[in-house]
Fold these 2 entries.
Entry 1:
Amino acid sequence: MKRCFARGQGLPKLRFGLGGIMAACVIFLGSTALADTDAEVNARKNALDVAGAFTNDGFKLRDGHWCGTVKPQDQALIAVNLFAGNQYWFAVGTPDPGRKVAVNVYNESGKLVTTQHYEAGEQAAAGFSPSDSGQYFVAVNLESGDPTNFCLIYSYK
């Protein structure tokens, strides 16, 4: 399983276009040989709790997940390829109660995409159906609290 994430400082970095984003983002690839920390396991559990509600509506969980660390007023960016006509939900969880996280989705030119939102402290989700196939960027933001681990999972139908 591959885990990757990239960090950005905010929307202005997204305005450089796809080439600039790829050059500016640092991508980490992990392997299954690396053991997950307790914080990553608990963050994934919280993300799965949110994503489980969408499976009841016919959504399938994508195989894989992304884990990392996010700081307040910072964001982690994850590049995903999405297909027009599908519906997607991006669920994020942190292991720390009292943290407030949010999920936003941007198209390849850096424009914020209108999504449905769910936010409940250390858990959040954003859902939408893209009108165009292509690369999108999912931003995980920590709105309050100390730096924390996060896990992002997405589902589709």
Note: Helices lie at 11-14, 17-24, 38-55.
Entry 2:
Amino acid sequence: MTVPCRALLVAFVVLVGLLGATTAEAQTGAPPWAACGRTDPERKPAKTYPVLPPVGGPTRTFAVLQCGNDRFGYRHIAGKHGQEWADLAVLTGGPWQSLADFAITQTLTVPQPGYPQFAPDRNTWTYKSPLQIKDQEGQVRATYWVVVGVAAQDGKVLTGFYTRDPR
């Protein structure tokens, strides 16, 4: 039986040591997202991500991370999940923003089979994919599942976090 390339890609979302982008960002100091200052509006775009359109859902091929507030967007991710990402980023040697950006990108473009899933009560699409952290010898040190929520009506990124629960 032939395994689709997409399934193979999902199974091997991997970080080994420093990410290439992380190294460049460390040298330039440029973050993966546009700045969201205190006075920047909630709707200011911080980054546009490509997405795999949901089967039976909108044909939108992108999702927008906006500056947001404590309930959605960059400010939500930074405020509610930033320390969690920072704790995990210690294993990669880079800043949490680079790890979160990498994980969100991979999750939105190559979600695990069965995703994205629609939650009609919240009118959101949930994307999920595995993230493996490997050491320099290529041994898996830990596996996490990245979860990204996207608003169905306008494609804005609501949240991005990881869990140890594969379900």
Note: The first strand starts at residue 14 and ends at 16.
